[in-house]
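# step 3/5: fold
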Amino acid sequence: MTTSSDPHVPIRTCVGCRRRASRSDLRRVVLDDAGRPVESSTAPGRGAWVCGAVCIAAGIRNGGFERAWRRRVAADVLAGWGEGAHDDDEAKGLT
């Protein structure tokens, strides 16, 4: 049996830029019961992982969110959520 002193760190891929990073460096987005995107690290369902506002826009543009969620989402729902998420990032200084 092989053992390692380093703990296992789950690696996720950003749906916008395709960068691989630990889950602590990315934000998880799921669809709520009404089909709206919600940021949550613990909500049930398929999650899409994203770096920040720039990658949110790229994920919307390249279909990364729909691919991760395995379902189609109305463009206006994604666009509206993406703009709100970008505003939140600016307020926190994350852009």
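# step 4/5: annotate
The CA atoms of residues 29 and 48 lie 5 Å apart.
# step 5/5: archive (pending)
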